[in-house]
Automatic annotation (TrEMBL):
SUPFAM superfamilies: cAMP-binding domain-like (SSF51206), Winged helix' DNA-binding domain (SSF46785). InterPro entries: cNMP-bd_dom, cNMP-bd_dom_sf, Env_Response_Regulators, HTH_CRP, RmlC-like_jellyroll, WH-like_DNA-bd_sf, WH_DNA-bd_sf. Gene3D superfamilies: Jelly Rolls, Winged helix-like DNA-binding domain superfamily/Winged helix DNA-binding domain. It holds the Pfam family HTH_Crp_2. Residues 14-97 form the Cyclic nucleotide-binding domain. It comes from Vogesella facilis. This is Crp/Fnr family transcriptional regulator. The keyword DNA-binding applies. Keywords: DNA-binding, Transcription, Transcription regulation. Residues 148-217 form the HTH crp-type domain. The keyword NADP does not apply.
Length: 226
């Protein structure tokens, strides 16, 4: 276990510059956890005593209202970590983490990692940089949800997923449409209506989770007139 954890961790930007000794120290205390689709890693309010690193699969971070409606805050992909911000605060999780498919997760307990941070300022700076980038992304999401309408949110996502400079192609939604809608702060019904509107106005073709975009310029124009 320690050998495989060490090999995986050393390829993460967060730990890429760690000395072999420090990396081995982290690997020695890292535990491996396999989860089936739909498994809950932690609930909102659970105490945070470490950070998680996703090896494969997808994990959603979400919050639920008293009425039972769910808001997906973030989707975690392989190679990403989560939980480290709360670990620094020695507090409780503000979100629930649940697997969207079978997943392998590494758990790094807080105490040895924090001790390593005290002795390795470069690691501390890299972790702060990673947290800052994630915060910046979440703030951009909030601004987008506040200032953009439903069509603009979906179009912006599709264009970003298609890739800069691409004029046509296909986008595969990384999660089902219900989760994708929540991530864009839309109801599933609104998300479906927007896709139908884009089919009519920009000739996109929706086939399950795959969306074919014959002309990205038509999508861009929809944002400009929105």
């Amino acid at each position: 276990m320690q050998a495989s954890a060490s090999r995986f961790l050393q390829h993460l930007p967060l730990f890429a510059s760690c000395s072999p000794e420090h990396l081995q120290q982290i690997a020695n205390v890292t535990t491996e956890h396999r989860y089936e689709k739909g498994a809950v890693l932690f609930q909102r309010g659970d105490a945070c005593d470490g950070m998680h690193v996703l090896v494969y699969g997808k994990v959603k971070l979400s919050v639920s209202s008293r009425s039972g409606s769910e808001k997906v805050v973030e989707i975690i992909y392989p190679g990403q970590s989560f939980g480290e911000a709360i670990m620094f605060m020695t507090g409780s999780y503000p979100v629930m983490a649940q697997t969207l498919e079978d997943a392998l997760v590494l758990f790094v307990p807080a105490a040895p990692l924090l001790a390593l941070l005290d002795s390795d300022p470069q690691l501390a700076r890299r972790m702060l940089a990673g947290l800052s980038m994630r915060l910046h992304g979440l703030l951009q999401d909030v601004a987008s949800y506040s200032l953009q309408g439903a069509v603009a949110r979906v179009v912006s996502y599709l264009l970003q997923a298609l890739g800069e400079g691409e004029h046509a192609g296909a986008v595969t939604l990384p999660v089902n449409k219900q989760v994708m809608a929540s991530r864009l702060n839309l109801t599933p019904e609104t998300f479906s209506r927007v896709l139908q509107k884009l089919s009519e106005q920009a000739q996109i073709v929706v086939e399950g989770r795959e969306i074919h975009i014959p002309d990205a310029n038509k999508l861009q124009q929809l944002i400009e007139v929105a």
